[in-house]
Amino acid sequence: MSTRFHKTLLSASICSAVALASGVTFAQNNEVKEDMVLEEIVVSGIRSSRQAGLSNKRNSAQFVDSIVSDDIGKLPDANVAESLGRISGVQIDRGIGEGSDISIRGQRQNVILYNGRQIFDATGRGGNGLDQLNTSSYGLLTLVPSEIISSLEVSKLAAASDIEGGLGGIVNITTRKPLDTPGMQFVGSVAGTYEDLADENGHELFAMFSNTFADDTIGVLLTATSSSRELAEHGLNTFSGYGVIADNSSPLSDADGSPVSDDPNGDGVSGLFHLDPRLQQIAEERERGGFSAVLQWQPNDDMEVVFDTFYSQLESDRDRHWIGYFAGFGPHTDVVFDSNEILQSGIVTRPIQTNVEFAEVEAEILSSALRFDWLVTDNLTVSSEVSVTNSESSYDQLFFRLQSRTATDITYDFSRGDFGNFSFPADLTDPGQLNLAILFDQQFTAETDEVALRSDVEWMLDAGAFTSFEFGFRYQELETENGQISVDIRPNLAADTAGFDTFITLFSNSDFLKGDLSQLPRTYLSASRAFTGCESLAAFYTPEQQALCDEKLNPTGPGSLLNSYSIEEEFTSLYAKANFESSIGDMAVSGNIGVRYLERDMTSTGNQLVDSPAGGLVVSPNVFDRTDDEFLPSAVVKVDVNDQLVVRLGAARVIAFPNTEDLNNGLQLFGDFRGVGGNPDLDPFDAIQLDASVEYYFDEGAIISLGVFDKDVDTFIFQSTQQEDIAGFPQPFTIAKKVNGDSADVKGLELLYEQQFTALPQPFDGLGIVATYSYIDSETPLEDNNGRKLTLPGLSENNVNLIVYYETDTFGVRLAYNWRDEYLQGVGPANTGIFFNNYADLSATVNWDINDRYSLNFEALNLLDSQLETYNAVEDALRTNAEYGSIYKLTFTARL
Questions:
Q1: Distance CA 175, CA 750 (A)
Q2: How many helices and strands in the chain, by DSSP H and E?
Q3: Domains and their CATH numbers in the chain
Q4: How does pLDDT run across 157-184, given as a tens digit for each residue?
Q5: pTM higher than 0.85
Q6: In this predicted structure, which of 142-146, 397-401, 448-452 has the lowest mean pLDDT?
Q7: CA-CA distance, 522 to 422, in Å (whole number)?
């Protein structure tokens, strides 16, 4: 700890030494202050918004990139995550058909701010919502309405005054304030959407009212949003992924019936096979609604009071159908391995499954803040803020599996087509051949409450290289509660039992993966909507099965307690920062140096099974306490070599505490002797970061820049699996939990080229281009079961963005292309990496200002109809692949 602190302090001191080394040549130059004042940008249109973003970057002391909304109620992309993905070094994770979460420089540990205050979703820090599909479809960035946003700012190196926790960076989502534009304004828009794969229409509504009073000293701004969409996803999916053949009782033979080794190349490492491929389709109705309000009082130039609040709610009703089989515990014949020992094709004798999940998801966030800014004297400014955030979410799941009564020879070939190829030789429309094998009735809940108080003081100096000193404190309470009520009943009930026909129906979709999987049944028996919960099948239960269903009604029962936990954290931080401005010859030099002190107290309460002194197993609370304290020094130097060339240097120690859900002090167990647990004693991510950039502003709205960075990561967190003995069970469980890893290094470069070709003759003077490229590499001690080196999860080596636009006074068109390289999602049960393959996206926007009041905007998303694919260890091991189709939106906006 002390060694790393001294190393960081030394790095920070080097940066400040650049500013101070010239001694007497550092004139007490107050003229520099005037040069550093941020320009006031009037934003309208693509070019003006790009100029505003570059102005923010040019004038900031920190390493900052920003995106400015080119009009009220309209980001340049479909949502917040999509827009952030246009910034070099920012990479998008995708949910069902849209960008939904981000990594910054390969790191998912980022701070999300709303008007400067930290916000969370229901699952807490680092959460991505209650979604059992391993996406972030219902995470934080999907809850912030894009229509209310004025700008997005990404800081890639934290200053001492910044909230800690941004290992990758800090995102600040900023909304408008009423006094920014005095007078009355009303903006309303209505949009129609069309989802190509779902073949369904939707709508979006937005309204904003703003007015000022009392000689423009009081302002009110109100917004409301509402949308309804129907989404779809088709493809190959899985729950268990790939397994090690030697770990399963699955004898192998070739076409002649001769035994085949599970280790074809004899290297001592067993081959891999797909455990449970699922040909899956999702149909989802998703509704969003929300409002925001800003009250602003500025009685004079020395004082301002702002109250702002926003509420957003998402409701989803999802049907997920799939056909599949479990490939373990059955003989495989005609097997063919590839050179990587991946079982590519064969015949497995197993029962066939038809499955359906009915899921209802609700997520909401309410965040409010009261901020007070006071210029006490010409030299002293005090700012204080109190904020409160509440996020809640629930996920109600009904799962129903029919299974063929006898094992069937299923032919599979993962090397054919985008989704593999399968043959299911059974009549899945005949209830006489099927049993009800499994039903789940589950409810997941999560809630996070946060209260924060901060106060900041800036003392301006009248002379000298140091222009001001800042210091302040912040106190935060964060509490997350997570619960689960789970019913798992396995009736093995004949589907042709008298009266059971009420609960099954023929499901059919002839458009599912049209042109692929020619032998796949498109019609099969599945659960009907008469199945409303485990209690709806009470007439068919044994007493033991009824007892399992009754558990649903008992949230304090053992099963529910084992899956519930709470985590309470308190953060207290203090900081001091010195800002300087001066010159070396004709070069303006500015920056800051500071340190932040942080103390964190955490209590994690989970539940576990223990032996009772009276005999038997009981559920007992398991409480774990931990305290951390950290010093976080930082420094940045900015050198304005001339009017066009800017050089920045920066250094900081950055940390990020583990995701809240990873600190769970409990253990969730499944029937196949797998489990998922938390680890409350995880150390935080810890890194020393060095940054440098050169920015050349060669024309108005034009830049070429190169940035390089290095993060020396002392401690990081990754998913691991291990065998653990659990009291009361006959065999060990394979438990997945997060653990600490040591000594990783992340480094990379970021390129930006942007230009508006205003010097070209008409009509070509409306052309513009934005191109970014980032290269990020990491070295970790992580290896898979074959000794392959693994990167940090979420990190793509290469990421490309290209935006080409054309704009006149009334018309604009924009093409935006995004491509990211493959990246590691995590480590699977077979101790192999699970990777997302590379992904490309192309979108287009066309806008027409009919007059000063009315405009039309057309958007087309996913024009490449790209598929999102994952694999295990090597690309040959196809794990999942999904398509979403294109999305189109036409918006009419009126300004009154």
A1: 28
A2: 6, 44
A3: 2-895 (2.40.170.20)
A4: 999 999 999 999 999 999 999 998 999 9
A5: yes
A6: 142-146
A7: 13
